[in-house]
Amino acid sequence: MVTHEVFAALADPTRLEVLTRLAREGPATATDLAAKLPVSRQAVTKHLAALDSVALVERHRTGREVRYSFHPDPLVAVVSWVESVGHQWDKRLERLRQELE
Amino acid sequence: MDERRETSGDVAVERSIQLSADPSLVWQHVTEGELLSTWMEGSVEIEPRAGGVISMTEPGGATYTGVVDELDPGRRLQWEWRSEDGMPARVEIEIEPLESGTRLTIRETLLHQQVFETPPQRFLRTDSPHLPDVESSARIHTVAVA
After folding, report:
1. In B, which residues are within 8 Å of A5 by CB distance?
2. pTM of the model
3. Which residues have CB under 8 Å from B83's CB, separation 6+?
4. For B130, which residue in chain A has the nearest alpha carbon?
5. By the CB < 8 Å criterion, does B73 face chain A?
6. Could you tell me the pLDDT band of residue B112, with boundaries at 50, 70 and 90?
7. Which position has the higher pLDDT, B133 or B48?
8. Taking all residues of chain A, what is their mean pLDDT, rounded to a whole number?
9. How far apart are CA B86 and CA A52, in angstroms?
10. Which residues, 6+ apart, have CB-to-CB distance to A95 below 8 Å?
11. From the centroid of its chain, how far is CA A61?
């Protein structure tokens, strides 16, 4: 999934904090995350569901516990698009400059 | 509260370049297929009018097709296109006369709503290094209004 929705999912500061913690500290449950953030477990669960909907996290169930981990692929795909399209235009504009000057 | 969901976020690439050529000559180079083909990476055909067709065939055979959806003679051109298996995007080209020469600005924006419908596999491959003398910016910014 490569979309604006990926970035929309990051627009909320708490959600970004949830994701940042997963990326930095490794997999965690909603309860683990709520203990470190000034929001309720329910709020964290909601943010995790939003992140899950755009594939920025992966769910791992062990017994009754659900752990979440950071899944960077959607971000990589968007960054890759920006990079490849940017390089393409760099080459084109350089050729145009040579053509005109 | 308005329930409509605004999709005003953009994933876009923008490049701006100053050229010593006159604006009219630069305009010709962005609206005439033969001239476009000299600097785009491929053979370009374009009907320079709103609703006109644009297509490009790369040397490797990959093709891009799209439609011109805005044309303000001498100043602005906009089209939407996609490759056979790539992501749809909007290309905006603006020409601004300078005291001496022309400023050309290109902005290509990922059309995310359409991306949802067709998962991307490949888009605009590049394999040459970044060229340093083109003023550039890649902008990713998102505004979500629920």
Report:
1. 112, 116
2. 0.69
3. B62, B63, B64, B122, B123, B124
4. A87
5. no
6. low
7. B48
8. 90
9. 25
10. B38, B39
11. 21
